Amino acid sequence: MSSPAIEVCDLHKSYGTHDAVRGIDFSVARGEVFGLLGPNGAGKTTTVEILEGYRERTRGEVSVLGFDPGERPAELRVRVGIVLQAGGMYRFITVREAVAHWARLYPHPRDVEEVIAVAGLQDKAETRVRTLSGGQARRLDLALALVGDPELIFLDEPTTGFDPAARRAAWETIRSLRDLGKTVLLTTHYLDEAQELCDRVAIIKAGRILAIGRPQELGVGAATRVRVSWRDEEGRLQEREVEDPTALVHELTSAAVARGASVTELTVVRPSLEDVYLELTADAAASVTADPVPARA
Ligand SMILES: Nc1ncnc2c1ncn2[C@@H]1O[C@H](COP(=O)(O)OP(=O)(O)O)[C@@H](O)[C@H]1O
Ligand SMILES: [Mg+2]
């Protein structure tokens, strides 16, 4: 049982002439919470839906719990829970009826009331689905993904559109999945969500993985570079990135002292994971072709 829950090797997906996924590789260990982090259009949903068996890949190898999802094996369906980016199948029945109905599709469902509680919908069990708020409807999607007691759960943007309190509640739910030993693949465009929840993150943009690793590692790796900025004698803002700012700062300050002046607006900043993300995703087309960021395993 120590083989990875998910393995993706050189996955490509084209829609007509548009290459949405351009050769990505990653694997997710059993019990791991893995995040695909990237802006809209990055290829997150495409990747996840190929792993779910909802879309056909153009080429590459994928394995989910040892199966090829492209063959839509029946055994896989009952071992995997899915929250689609656009959920909401039921409208006129109550939350409890929806969860109970979905539970009957699985051989070993979890307790309906317990799942409603885990999703934070106790107060809404008797409420008709169509009257739920956006955040509550998303929590129902989560409940439906959990009720079959799957070992692997796909969550495509599980908190998009949530208010801050609902996001915190969803984060708690996702942490409880990890505590239950579940494997989770989630997509998000929120950096804080990836940082809070994920054991490892792949930053994806324009169908390519730009960096992969533990959130701290991605931050720490970037933090080996330091950004020094200052205003020069002509009043122009200057900026340099260096590994060790000591010599540069010495040069700037001693030159200024020799002139009897000071270095104005001198700052020395270590980039955060957020800076790394913005930097990687801002200009991916240029950086991917000209100066690829090495993937860190
Ligand atoms: N069914 C489709 N037909 C054509 N193009 C699509 C289809 N689905 C997605 N795309 C395109 O593929 C790219 C990746 O989309 P998607 O996987 O939904 O990204 P994400 O989930 O990261 O926002 C986008 O440019 C999108 O417009
Ligand atoms: Mg998407």
From TrEMBL:
GO terms for molecular function: ATP binding; ATP hydrolysis activity. It is a peripheral membrane protein. It holds the Pfam family ABC_tran. The keyword Cell membrane applies. Residues 6-231 form the ABC transporter domain. InterPro entries: AAA+_ATPase (IPR003593), ABC_transporter-like_ATP-bd (IPR003439), ABC_transporter-like_CS (IPR017871), ABC_transporter_ATP-binding (IPR050763), P-loop_NTPase (IPR027417). It comes from the Bacteria. SUPFAM superfamilies: P-loop containing nucleoside triphosphate hydrolases. GO terms for biological process: response to antibiotic. Keywords: Antibiotic resistance, ATP-binding, Cell membrane, Membrane, Nucleotide-binding, Translocase, Transport. It is found in: Cell membrane. Its main location: membrane. GO terms for cellular component: plasma membrane. PROSITE patterns: ABC_TRANSPORTER_1, ABC_TRANSPORTER_2. This is Efflux ABC transporter, ATP-binding protein.
